[in-house]
């Protein structure tokens, strides 16, 4: 981004012996604001939001393990619990609590679990489509079915090589296919920061393919709702009207003590990309409410 505004500095921290990356947008005397990306995204997904809010907040934007410029996991699964630990370590090591959080998708689900674990660490939290995955993730399955499915998924992913694109332009086209709402400059920016160049000159996405494989066991919905019920801080849930997430049957509002749910029109899963100005206005108003 080259618009004459602030730019962040890159830093690293350690979580379960993994070297993880985050961006710090400066302004350390301002209230802390953590920006948490979604699955197979990276910290630069927040650059537009951070540019607008960094004069008001001390913004930290991490890369989850297996994403962006953070280390990949070897010999272990990616699960929500480990992601929660990564957030807990970052907040602990930088002494950020209590703080505000904006989180998207996987990041929203993880941030809400952290907030339920440490309710006193959260001032306010905005979760963009982070209230859980698609309905089929929660279908009842027997123990052997879950284990068989997980083993087969790992076997398949072990033979799956990272997709290689001949040029960055080809990768950009794939990025735009994934979210047609993106402006051209947004898609190119996310592609540049989301790709590595391979030794043969091709390009591949930075995320680890193993992030596609979910752990065979996780908190069930009842346990997740138990954590949500512990969050006494104000919560703003945000959904896009054109996203699959807006079609989830159950309204999550009943499971939070202090929550508001907003549906943003003409937006898909990445509301903060698709309707940036509207999202910023909504978020500012929410953070400023007494």
Keywords:
eight-stranded mixed sheet, 290 residues, 33% helix, two-stranded antiparallel sheet, alpha/beta, single chain, Rossmann fold, 9 helices
The H-and-E topology, N to C, reads as EEEHEHEHEHHHEEHEEHH
* Share of residues in helices: 25-40%
Poorly predicted runs? none
- CATH topology name, in short, is Rossmann fold
Biggest β-sheet: strands ordered side by side in the sheet: 1-2-4-3-5-6-9-10
- Domains (count): 1
Q: What's the number of extended β-strand segments?
A: 10
User: Rg from C-alpha positions?
Assistant: 18 Å
Please, what is the oligomeric state?
Answer: single chain
Overall CATH class: Alpha Beta
Second-tier CATH architecture: 3-Layer(aba) Sandwich
Binned strand content: 15-25%
Q: Please give the largest β-sheet.
A: 8 strands, mixed
Mean pLDDT: 92
CATH superfamily: Alpha/Beta hydrolase fold, catalytic domain
SS element count, helices? 9
């Amino acid at each position: 981004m080259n618009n004459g505004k602030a730019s962040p500095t890159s830093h690293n921290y350690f979580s379960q012996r993994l070297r993880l990356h985050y961006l710090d947008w400066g302004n350390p005397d301002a209230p802390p604001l953590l920006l948490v990306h979604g699955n197979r995204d990276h910290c630069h997904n927040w650059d537009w939001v951070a540019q607008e809010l960094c004069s008001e907040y001390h913004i930290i934007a991490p890369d989850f393990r297996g994403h962006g410029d953070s280390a990949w996991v070897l010999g272990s699964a990616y699960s929500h619990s480990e992601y929660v630990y990564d957030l807990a370590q970052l907040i602990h090591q930088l002494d950020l609590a209590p703080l505000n959080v904006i989180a998207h998708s996987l990041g929203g689900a993880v941030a809400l679990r952290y907030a339920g674990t440490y309710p006193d660490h959260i001032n306010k939290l905005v979760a963009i489509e982070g209230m859980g995955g698609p309905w089929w993730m929660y279908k009842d399955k027997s123990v052997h079915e879950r284990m068989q499915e997980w083993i087969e998924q790992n076997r398949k992913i072990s033979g799956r090589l990272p997709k290689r694109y001949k040029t960055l332009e080809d990768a950009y086209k794939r990025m735009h296919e994934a979210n047609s709402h993106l402006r051209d400059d947004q898609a190119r920016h996310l592609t540049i920061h989301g790709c590595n160049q391979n030794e043969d000159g091709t390009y591949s996405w930075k995320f680890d393919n193993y992030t596609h494989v979910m752990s065979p066991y996780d908190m069930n919905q009842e346990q997740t709702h138990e954590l949500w019920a512990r969050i006494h801080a104000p919560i703003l849930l945000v959904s896009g009207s054109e996203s699959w997430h807006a079609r989830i049957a159950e309204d999550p509002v009943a499971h939070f003590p202090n929550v508001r749910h907003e549906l943003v029109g003409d937006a898909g899963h990445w509301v903060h990309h698709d309707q940036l100005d509207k999202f910023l206005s909504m978020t500012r108003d929410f953070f400023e409410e007494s």
